[in-house]
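New to this. Help decode the following:
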Amino acid sequence: MMNGTLVADRVDLQGLYQEKLMTAEEAVRLVKPGQGIIFPIMPGEPKALLDGIRGLETLEDNRLYRMLPSFPVVDAPKDKLRQISIFLSGMDRKAMNSGTVDLLPNHFSDIPSILLEREEGRMVIMATVAPMDEDGYFSLGTSPSYVASLIDKADTIILEVNECMPRTFGINNGIHISQVAALIENNIDLPELGSPSLNDKDLAIGKEIAAKVKDGDTLQIGFGAMPNAVMEYLVDKRHLGLHTEMLPERLVDLAEKGVIDNSQKEIDTGKSVATFAIGSKRLYEFMDNNPDILMNPCDYTNSFEVISKLDNLVAINSSVEVDFLGQCNSERVKSTYYSSTGGQSDFMKGVRLTKNGTGIICLYSTAKNDEISTIVSHLFSGAPVATSKNDIDTVVTEFGSAKLKGKTISERTESLIKIAHPKFRDELTEQAKAMGYLA
């Protein structure tokens, strides 16, 4: 009797699936004028639905929210579709700086609440998901991020089912077929991002930071080559944990070698925790149905309350420039807006609440072929501050480390000049004296 009931339930689920299955062109027509459309991060972006939006003639006062997009912006008038970036990538950076795309300032942890405040009662979620399981659930796979926290609050959910999307586990990671207004199928390879190419500066920075990592520590690894270079030098460590935003490609190697086993974490023991992933097929295959990985919403991974429970957290993030006060501009390169805050501020603030945590900002000592120092007397006019002087802990360049937490302005200035490129140290010293920071 029980088996018959289960079979009947599954037949109903498949029937419901077929009822809601349609083409991308049909599905996007469910979008009403005035609604806000929300896409997940990178591999979670539904390409076929995005292409459907490109040809949608009924757009009127709609908004499209994207973070680290994998595909180009939509060619549409702003009064029809306002495109809003939550974190820039190469796909929308030029469009943002030319005014076609707008940028939404945020802490990563606040994105769900910000989007809810902006779009409550008119929210459409479109996402690429793993195929439905026997209980009728689709997994958000690589990209629960902010979407997972908005599923129950969305007015309309449209899914792009892709068998290449890994099935993952985590808080609010699943979407039930009963919640879905429409779905399409599009079995294409997910966007990939291989391990970043590492130069000598990356490796020097990675080695310097890795020396600060102790057995049993938990790591948060930020986006980019420099933070990921740290993982090159962790093979001799033991019982490391991972609690981060982007699941790094090197997790596969370090997990297989037993370096990362999460056995010493105070919470989510035995589990690597992240909120999104972008990597190679090898990473996606490693994630698929892996119970040792939790893909949780960003308001969990980046929550101060959660971060504060990780006693031995080492948070590693990169920046563009740091001034004598310890302020970090991590978003803008002179006249060009390059990225956004992401979770840097969440973790640099959050790590201060831990028992033994360390917050690290890393950057090359120079830019533009060694023509410009990234250690500066003051940030340029209009520079956004991602990490404040009150939240800075340690700064690392290829020339070493400067611990700024607990230091005076003159002590910070002296420490930062020591890790600046040698060709700029005299100039920086003179600037510091003129500002009264050094005698």
